[in-house]
Amino acid sequence: MSLALIKSEIERFLAGTEPEVLCITGAWGVGKTFAWNRYLRDAQTRESIGLKHYAYVSLFGNNSLDELKYAVFENTIATTDIGIEPSLETLRTNAIAVTKRITKKSLGMFQQLPVVKGHVGGLGPLWYMAVSRTVICIDDIERRGKNLDLRDVLGLVTQLKEQKHCKVCLILNDEALNESQSEFRTYFEKVVNTQLAFAPSPQEATGIALDPEQASSKWLAHCCVVLGIANIRLIKKIERAIQQVTPFLSSFHPKVAEQAIQSLALFAWALYEPQRAPTPEFLRDRATYIVREKRDAIGPREAAWNALLDTYGFLAMDELDSALLAGLRNGYFDQAVIRQHAAALDGTLQNTEAHDSVREAWKRYHDSFDDDQEQTLDAIHTAFLANIGHIDVVNFSQTVAFFKDLGRPEQAAQMLAAYITAHRDNAAVFDIENHPFRNQITDPDVIHAFQQQQNAVAAQVDAAAILRSMADRHGWHPDDLAVLATVSVDEYRRIFKEHRGDVLHGIINMCLQFRAQADNQGIIAERARAALELIGRESPMNALRVRKYGIRVGEAGEVEAPLSRPEG
Fold first, then answer.
1. d(CA 552, CA 545)
2. Of 438, 447, 337, 349, nearest in space to 394 by CA
3. What are phi and psi for residue 168, nearest 5 degrees?
């Protein structure tokens, strides 16, 4: 059923005064309640609601008809107050309406009482007397308590329509209609006058869910439409995540926020609609599916995902994407980490000429079947050499492997040498062991060259002097940690073996105190621990010596137990 027809039918229902029952059905999360509330508020704004009172009731956890009757009474408000939560004052007004039906003498008493649900006991039917000529929405029918039978609910709905002259809207998921299939449908069809099947298209869903006044709404709507997301609950979840993240990104290039919105929509889809979306693991490893390692193993499902992601404009995950995915999984976003990776992306995007030239070079490969292999490789090679300082490590490694696959080893070697020269002052680039996408940096020549460069950088650093200084002053500077995080396990082993006495204990304890920490501190502790393991395997005596630092090495050189903090 088209959304326009559903909207028209709901508007007709709200505008009329004749009792009737409307039912809105649809899959979980498609936005039935959201749409109902949207059209209800629109009708209120136009003053086109026929009856003067409205009540919204969720059956979630409701276990009896008395509870349901009281809930209708408790949640009744004037239609002019739609959008305002029922309050003690509205409850008092409803209670007074009941007293007028019982006895005038009771009026004063009820005006003095703080009427709340906890005081009514089993008086649900009494309060229910006040309900009349009201628009009532009964939601979450499939989540009712186990003691509340659907037939009883429908019986009450019939009474509301026929005896209390109410207009009742039922909202239920499709699976509720499958309960007691034949018997329930018999009751259902007798009670319900009009049934609307709510199944909006992605375009319709974004039109309902997103506020056009929000700056991000147009781009988010485009992302949802391309991915085919029609679940309004999911769209709102994505919108909330965007509202949390985009304030962190306001000082960067606009395309940083644009990428964040695009990635959040894709990752939320992958996490919350796994039966339809690409897996997070596929998204993480996508570069290997389209460039080299996994091309031969790709199946029809992965091929379809690749086709969709090409259309969507998502090539592969970067470190900002990784932080956003972690935020969705954890339920919160680490502002410092997101800003750090956003700043790196911003630096690349500020050089728009470099960014665009590399992208255009790759488009020659992705966007046609032309017989132009030599020209395409030459274009990519030229673009990479011209912008080598702005290429991330994963993209670079995959490109080197790509050129070697297609018979251009000399150009691959040339790009590798140029990359090392361009980044020689940034030691962190070559520390691929701690790169978040380490599994995608697979070219053996790149790995070997980066290890050599890392060792060369470490050789220029007097790591031992830094460690001695830190141990002497019982403190450190972030620059110290940044340098020590580039030192290899073998170098830590050499440092430990060349020192003695209190100095040795001091520098080891300084390293190991960073256990269970993140970033550079964790790297230092882990490499120091690995160095001590190597030392412990050298001899039975050294195996005993390293135990004081929480490392137990067996006779066969195996680590026997989890690490604990060093003993003194």
1. 9
2. 438
3. -115, 130
Residue 557 scores a pLDDT above 60: no
Cα–Cα distance, 50 to 460 (Å, whole number): 82
**Strand order from edge to edge, sheet including 76-78:** 76-78, 53-58, 134-139, 167-173, 20-26, 194-197
* End-to-end Cα, the chain, rounded Å: 73
Instruction: Give φ, ψ of 137 to 5 degrees.
Output: -105, 120
**CA 502 vs CA 201, 490, 505, 508, 510: distances in Å:** 71, 22, 5, 10, 12
- For residue 358, pLDDT over 50 is answered with yes
CA distance 334 to 338: 6
pLDDT band at 348 (very low <50, low <70, confident <90, very high): confident
pLDDT, mean of residues 471-493: 84
**Confidence label for 392 from pLDDT (cuts 50, 70 and 90):** confident
Measured CA to CA, the distance from residue 288 to residue 349 in angstroms comes to 24
Of the candidates 352, 404, 354, 355, the residue with the CA atom closest to the CA atom of residue 377: 404
Q: What are phi and psi of 58, to 5 degrees?
A: -95, 135
Q: How many CB atoms lie within 10 A of CB 217?
A: 17
198 φ, ψ (degrees, to nearest 5) = -95, 110
Could you tell me which of 26, 198, 59 has the C-alpha nearest to residue 142?
59
Please report which confidence band the pLDDT of residue 106 belongs to, taking 50, 70 and 90 as the band edges. very low
CA distance 185 to 179: 9
HEC secondary structure over 443-462 = CHHHHHHHHHHHHHHHHCCC
CA distance 358 to 382: 9
- 18 half-sphere exposure, CB direction, 13 A CA radius: 5
Taking only the tens place, the pLDDT of each residue in 492-550 is 999 999 999 989 999 998 899 887 777 788 899 999 999 999 999 999 999 999 998 88
How far does Cα 101 stand from its chain's mean position? 53
Q: For residues 512 and 194, what is the distance between their CA atoms, to the nearest angstrom?
A: 70
Q: Which amino acid is at 504?
A: L
How far apart are the C-alpha atoms of 4 and 35, rounded to whole Å? 12
pLDDT at 521: 86
Taken in order of first residue, the domains within the chain and their CATH numbers are 3-199 (3.40.50.300), 205-350 (no CATH), 461-549 (no CATH)
What is the amino acid identity at position 20? E
* Tokens standing for residue 360: 């255009």
Q: Closest Cα partner for 67 from 127, 157, 130, 115?
A: 127
Cα Rg, the chain, nearest whole Å: 33
- Whole-angstrom distance, CA of residue 446 vs CA of residue 420: 10
Q: How many whole angstroms separate alpha carbon 440 and alpha carbon 423?
A: 19
Distance CA 56, CA 148 (A): 18
**Among 504, 498, 555, 553, CA closest to 530:** 553
Sole residue written with tokens 């008092």: 92
DSSP readout, 229-272? ---HHHHHHHHHHHHHHGGGGTTS-HHHHHHHHHHHHHHHHHHH
Output the pTM of the full model.
Answer: 0.59
Q: What is the dihedral of CA 200, 205, 209, 213, to 10 degrees?
A: -140
| Residues composing the chain | 568
